[in-house]
Amino acid sequence: MPKPSDLLQGTLDLLILKTLAREPLHGWAIAKRIQMRSGDVLSVGQGSLYPALHRLEQQGWLRAEWKPSDLGRDAKFYALTRTGQKQLERELKTWERLSSAVRLLIETA
Amino acid sequence: MAFVRGLRRLASYCRRSRVETELQREVDIHFEQLTKQYLDKGYREVDAKAAARRDFGSVGWTKDQCRDVHRFHLIDDLLTDLAYSVRVLRRSPGFALTAIATLTLGIGANTAIFTIVNALLLRPLPFDHPERLLAVAERNVIGDEQDMGVAPGNLINWQLSSTAFDSISGYTTQAVTLSDDGPGFEPQRLTACACSGNLAATLGVTPLLGRTFAPDEDRFGAARLVAISYDLWLRQFGAATDVIGRRIRLDDEPYEVIAVMPPAFGFPRRGIDLWLPLLTALPPAIQERHDLHFLQVVGRMRSSVTHQQASADVDRISAAYKQAHPNESTGKGAHAVPLHQAFVRDVRTPLLVLLGAVACVLLIACVNLANLLLTRAMARSREIGIRIALGGSRGRLVRQLLTESLFLSAVGGALGMVVALWMAQILIVYAPGADFVLPAGRMPIDTSVFLFACVVAIATGLLIGLVPALRSGRREVAGELRNVTRSTTGGRAHSRFRNTLVSAEVALSLVLLVAAGLLLHSLTRLYAIEPGIRLDHGLTMTISLPTVRYPTPLKRSKLFTQLGDRLPLVPGVTAVGLTSCTPLTGACNTLFFYIEGRPYVPGHFFAAQERSVTPSYFAAAGVRLLKGRVFNLEDGVGFDPAQPRTGKVIISDVMARTFFSDADPIGQRIFFDYEVQRERNGGIGAPRYEVIGVVSDVLPTIDAHIAPTLYRPLLDVANSGASILVRTAVEPQSVIPMLRQQVHQLDPGLVVAQPRTLDEVVGRSTSERRFTLGLFVALAALAVLLAAIGLYGVVSYGVTQRTVEIGVRIALGATGANVSRLVVMQGLKPAAVGVVVGIVSAIVASQMLRGLLFGVTATDPVTFGIVPPALLTVAAVACYLPALRATRLDPTTALRAE
């Protein structure tokens, strides 16, 4: 499969938060969904995903819970907290600003 | 937000094993799913697993990253640093032991002194709501004095009329003899406190056993009751539970024990064994006197009142009485101060000064250790350089070095705590103010002492570690990776800093040395004083005549006469004299008098110290007769109170010069205010006393000023107690048994107590001074030693640093003398600076010592003239030793060494 492009840490946070906006998921499901929803363009490495999940949990933006899953055994489900919701909105705004700035630069070059 | 994050980190740190297992499970699941994905694609199991592992990447690295997120850096780093510090210190045990020993002594000494300061000055008195207890005293009886003893009449007035106090109690201490008819019972002299019945209520204490005095038990003629101390209960009665109701004999009078006081109770000071109601033995005629000032008073204010208001209240009552009775020698007012303040007044300065001194010693020790650590840090510069090169942050490095020094100071602090507790137990017995409201042997150790030790340990650790740590973290350290030992600009800044430290050490030790010198000079001045009586081969003992068997002055006088006749017969005794109280232990009594022939203004009297003596006393004491004659056996007003003869008094030289400066005192007559009072109350005429002689002055105590003194015939006054002064030709202690025997033969029930040589008496009165001096000398010696060691260390290091240079000089023809002069001068420069700074600081600091000095000023030229040169000499010696080493350098080896 095509080599996944490196994702900045901030962007990974945004993706994770957005993915969990709809429903709580476990780590494997998050990775799969990001890959799927991006049309296989973005693939999150395990080495980045789990540290990011743990970090977001420490920040208080995610809440984790061990629940029975569709994998046949209990898995650690991450859910968005209220503060996480707010953080998601902030990150979205930042992303908007950043991407429009980049687009402006590219188009006028 | 960061705080919450920190808390969460702390939480996950505490649950780290659980976090670990969860992490493993998460990773396992993901790995499983990856493997399943490959299996679904048709890979074999082994290949699927291998592919999954490849995809996953480093499991360990992932877990590490996750762990990093959870890490509570502070604790983890701290533990790592601690383990590292211990390893490093184990490698140089000599340094570690020296540092720990120094810190233990320094922190321990400081904590010990602080324990005493805390126990005496900071902690409240051990009574109920001690902040409401006030000491009340009369003022302006004679002149401007603020504190005079209280007369019983005034005490009763205050008790009846005061509105600001819940309860007021008077008390006084006296010696009594405890006796028993039981077999083999040796009569004992104990100290009793005669107190108002409500004293326990005023102080807010309840007895351990029994009950307090009832209000009607504190009156003249009531049954004789006594409360005993816990100590006495243990020693004398074996903690018997049936002691309540037992009868004991005090001064041959039967008393019933009604209470045992709690173990921590000793009022007004340690060593009081008995409490009796004050008024029971005080005849009503005395109870209504306002001019006999022998009581101390303590009162408990009402909670709604401030102590200024309470003071104003008693002042008002006293002033009103004085206005109504202007001729009585009673106070024009009164004033009240918090009881704690009254107790510690004399003790506060010496203790605080001691605390300052011991803090100085700790500072000097810290400076030495800082220098030592600095040297070590520089020796480890390669290691530190490598760490920085490998990416270690400077902050981390500083933290690690600080952890080392904090570890040292923590160990030193813990050991120091133990040392402190041990030292404090010893010091409390001898410390100034030891005779205070602190039960013997029980030092209240509370949390503030531990807190103090912790703060001192942490501060010390930071102090000694900060400088080397900060210097090690600097950028130029990286250059030391190249291990350049020749002196560079960095080296010069370094040595300048060290020299400053050395100067500081020398300055501090000079201050301490000056303080010790001043105290020593004071003590020598004190001992050089002529007290006025001969001290060599002198012995004193006290004797007390129980009122039951010697109820009248005549009977007492007869016994005293017999004593005076018998005692000189003991072999070895050259002279015997009796006096009303032991010489050199303070004023026996103060009497107010008028001089006949001068205009008599009632209420305008003179005061003089009074002492009664037998005719042979002056010769036995070595007091010279300057004019007139001494007493003979007929002198005195006689024993018929209705027909008093003209009495006789002898006055001291200073009294003659103060009151009879224009005329010959011999033949002049005086009369006493208390007898004028008695005349006013009861009718007996106040007798006149003719001055028959003038004698040389005697100091009340060794460090007091000369005061006018008058003497009356003891055989005439014949109080129930006396002090026997014996002059011997042999060793004074050796005649004590035979003297006791003589007394015993006269009357077996008489107790001879406190046999002491006159030197011992003086020694006792200077014991606190000598204790303070001893401590200061020890501290100063320690300080000088530490400063000398520090100086030696710095100069020695300088020699090592300049090995090459010195080698060159020697090779170029410098003599040993040149080299040693170079080295010594290098070390003496900071020492000299330190001495100069020290002199200035000492001049300022010694102002605090003024209250402790005797006969010397705070800027005593003798002390300031001797100490600085002495310290410079010590400094020179400390510099000379490394200089010797420098002169012995072989130039070829020196030049090769790098």
Summarize the structure.
The complex is a heterodimer of chains A (109) and B (898). Chain A is an alpha+beta fold and 109 residues long.
Secondary structure blueprint with pairings:
The complex is a heterodimer of chains A (109) and B (898).
Chain A lengths: L8 H14 L2 E2 H11 L8 H14 L2 E7 L5 E7 L1 H27 L1
Antiparallel strand pairs in A: 1-3, 2-3
Helix pairs in contact in A: 1-3, 1-4
Chain B lengths: L1 H13 L1 H25 L4 H12 L2 H12 L2 H19 L1 H30 L10 E7 L12 H10 L3 E15 L8 E8 L3 H5 L5 E2 L14 E4 L1 H8 L9 E4 L2 E8 L11 E6 L6 H4 L8 E6 L5 H18 L8 E6 H6 L3 H32 L1 H9 L4 H37 L16 H26 L16 H40 L9 E7 L8 H14 L6 E7 L9 E7 L10 E8 L3 H5 L3 E4 L18 E6 H7 L9 E4 H10 L6 E7 L13 E5 H4 L3 E8 L7 H11 L4 E7 H8 L1 H35 L1 H9 L4 H30 L15 H27 L3 H6 L2
Parallel strand pairs in B: 3-8, 5-7, 14-19, 16-18
Antiparallel strand pairs in B: 1-9, 1-10, 2-3, 2-6, 2-9, 4-7, 5-8, 6-7, 11-20, 11-21, 12-20, 13-14, 13-17, 15-18, 16-19, 17-18
Helix pairs in contact in B: 2-3, 2-4, 5-15, 6-13, 6-15, 6-16, 13-16, 13-17, 13-25, 15-16, 17-25, 17-27, 17-28, 25-27, 25-28, 27-28
What can you see in these coordinates?
The complex is a heterodimer of chains A (109) and B (898). By secondary structure, chain A is of the alpha+beta class. Chain A has four helices and three strands; from the N terminus they run αβααββα. Chain A has a three-stranded antiparallel β-sheet. The radius of gyration of chain A is 15 Å and the shape is globular. The relative contact order of chain A is 0.17. Mean pLDDT of chain A is 83; it is low at 1-5. With 898 residues, chain B is an alpha+beta fold. Chain B is built from 29 helices and 21 strands. A six-stranded mixed beta barrel of chain B has the order 2-3-8-5-7-6. In chain B, a hairpin with an 8-residue loop joins strand 2 and strand 3. Chain B is elongated and about 135 Å long. The chains are: A alpha+beta (109), B alpha+beta (898). The interface between A and B is medium-sized, with 19 and 25 residues.
